[in-house]
Amino acid sequence: MSNLIVHGGAPLAGRIVPSANKNAILPILCATLLTAEPVRLRGITEITDVKKILEVFRSLGSSVEVDFQTGILDVHHKSTHFDPASDRLPEEMRSSIMLVPGLMARFGAARIEDDVKGCTLGAREIDPHVEVFERFGAVVERQSDGLLLNVPGRLRANDHWTDYASVTTTENFVLCAALAEGTSTLMNAASEPHVQEFCAFMQMLGAKLEGLGTSRLKISGVEKLGGGDFTFAEDFHEIVTFLALGAITGGDVQVKNSQPEQFPLIDRTFAKFGVRIEHKDGWSRAITTGALKVKEPFTRNILQKVEAAPWPYLPVDLLPIFVALGVKAEGSVMFWNKIYDGAMGWTSELSKFGAHAFLSDPHRMVTFGGKPLHAAEVESPYIIRVAIALLMVAASIPGRSVIRHAAPIRRAHPHFVENICSLGARIEWVEGD
Ligand SMILES: CC(=O)N[C@H]1[C@@H](OP(=O)(O)OP(=O)(O)OC[C@H]2O[C@@H](n3ccc(=O)[nH]c3=O)[C@H](O)[C@@H]2O)O[C@H](CO)[C@@H](O)[C@@H]1O
Ligand SMILES: C=C(OP(=O)(O)O)C(=O)O
């Protein structure tokens, strides 16, 4: 088990160039399976989920050349093979399920492993995915260790309207539709920045896709897709995290950000904690004056609140980062996770720091911030952004804290600890139990 030892209390300052967004990299990697032409990806990161997918590609006979120093990946699925009876897909990661369309389109068969749940945030449904695959013509059979999918012939276009705007279901729909026979439309499509980045990549491969960034996607299937050269944008999760680390420690952090147009709601959310975000010349900066303080609403008898839901709401994976600010800022904030039913069970870990946070129900937590905090040993659930939030609180408190089981951070953020240390923090990984 990997634990983080944090010697907190120092104001963090400096500049960070963030890495690419895991949730853009993974669907794009899965999309490369749809083409037999070479693809070059720039900005690929050395994170565990990426390494697992590349391992699968190699085991299926694809050519994979990666240099994590330069961030260049050359992938070519030319002599690729797949046998659903013996080949297995990666587990403990959500994006494994996005390998299915490429396998179905190329080999007429695919698998969904039992554990494609990713972070333990509550229900991670597979039914919306199975429904999409069935609509494109897959026959699905339950086996002892997963689901087996068979497609007789070419995938068939269809029109679909999902129950809710799901990120990976939207991506799976686009992946299936790109090579399907006919024109498909998806209503209630997700439109997060990483979904937009993925759609732009699909267009680069030659997919005929309209409606990028909206809730209605129209895709006309083509006979085959080409290759290309694609550069990833900066990860908005990392941008927000490093800005928040600057703010929570009373420091001065700037982060490279070439897409400030994605940030108005994120900036307003920072402002609720007394943090002003400035975007200038391709860099974003968190500006604080004195101790953090929650902005009081004018409406009487309500709490300041932060609501997370599918884009264009605040992205749910950012919620823990703002909870950390809520613990620190003087005043009360209600955090409302409108997506997951099991993402807030870590409230009790916050109390080990002396924080006052109250779990109202599975979707809502209230922080009563500004209380005196002390260093502590806490345990992270298997949730990337919660491990980070606990680290943020620890970094703001003088003394030695321990974040146990922080390894999920490595699923999304390469060189994370090195980056924070470059801002003046004293944090190290220690292997233990
Ligand atoms: C690899 C990847 O990209 N993972 C992201 C992706 O996961 P993923 O695509 O799995 O997340 P979904 O958008 O499908 O939502 C996850 C779960 O939340 C519930 N749900 C969601 C939306 C809604 O309006 N109603 C509802 O009930 C469903 O049970 C669903 O299974 O999107 C999530 C939501 O932004 C992020 O947390 C994950 O980091
Ligand atoms: C929840 C996350 O990822 P996954 O869906 O892969 O578990 C995340 O990136 O915060």
Give your account of this protein's structure:
This protein has 433 residues and is of the alpha+beta class. The chain folds into two domains: 2-19 and 234-431, Enolpyruvate transferase domain (UDP-n-acetylglucosamine1-carboxyvinyl-transferase, Chain, Alpha-beta prism); 22-231, UDP-n-acetylglucosamine1-carboxyvinyl-transferase, Chain. It is 28% helix and 26% strand. The chain is built from twelve helices and 23 strands. The strands form six sheets. It has a four-stranded mixed sheet, with helices on one face. A four-stranded mixed sheet has the order 2-14-16-15, covered by helices on one side. Helix 1 packs parallel to helix 6 and helix 3 runs parallel beside helix 5. The protein is globular, with a radius of gyration of 22 Å. The model has no long low-confidence stretch (mean pLDDT 96).
